[in-house]
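Field reference: sequence -> structure
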Amino acid sequence: AVDPTVARLIMAALTTEPSLTSKTRLVVLSSHYELVDVADSVIGVSRGELTHYSDVKEYRASAGFFVAVQSGSKLSEEEEEEEEESGESGIIPGTDSKLSDQEAASATLYEPEVKRTGLLSLETYQGYLEAMAGSANKRWFAVLIGLMFGTEAFRIAVDVWIACWAQDSFELSTTQWGWGLLGLTVACCGCCLGRALVFMSMALEAARNIHARILTSVSSGSVPLFFDVVPVGRLMNGFSKDLDIIDTLLPFYLFEFLYEAIFMATSLLVMLCCAPLVIVVAFPAAYAFICIRRVYMGSSRELKRLESSSRSPVLSLLVEAIAGTSVI
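Structure field:
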């Protein structure tokens, strides 16, 4: 019943201490069940009954709850067979019994944090979009895209209206020109306000759904299978900085992406209508932009992942230092 760091040091001392290696060692586990892999024999206690198992394999075969508890450096089947034949066993799986204290203590009880590489999967984007609007995400996205296109359409209409007014293309009075301009401006502002409200409501819904999903997943985790092998700093990092990015930066970047994409599409359409030869320059420029963006996004994505994974150990050390201030 100790924290993973102390448990690691205890097991390392049991392995490498010369005065203990020749004696029988009895370890009582109420957590950190991945350490059972190194035992020569196991005695299980369940509802007041004692059961003796001659080896770990027999124990795992009977106790299915603990089968999923894997050691971070578990021996392969070949190494286990070699150790059984030679009659040697080490307390730290995958290490030699003759290792020094420092080398044995370097073995970790925590599950290492896996840093993803490569492009984001389509399921990641789909999961966030589903969290934004739930089962009605298609309808709300249709409304959002419609309002964005409506904003750009009215913006272009305002420019065209002013150009026609300057050239006096229609036989209208100054009052009629002014009221027409006012109507188009109000419609453009209304669509702009509507798209902002719809998008922010969807972003807030996504933040609530993702937080509730993560909280439910963490709360339902078991002590030996999850909380004993996942550092506290990793949980703090996930519920602080990572969720902050999802709640603030991600909606901002997504809105900017949608706005700029629709703005470029409508602007390109207007240019093609006025000067069709623009298409000769547009496609090479788009290709160059995609190539440059691919290089930048690859490095930026990996740096963000590296920053996120390197923050967890710092928070873990901070939590352990705060928890041990009374002892220090």
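Note: Residues 64-108 have pLDDT under 50 and may be disordered.
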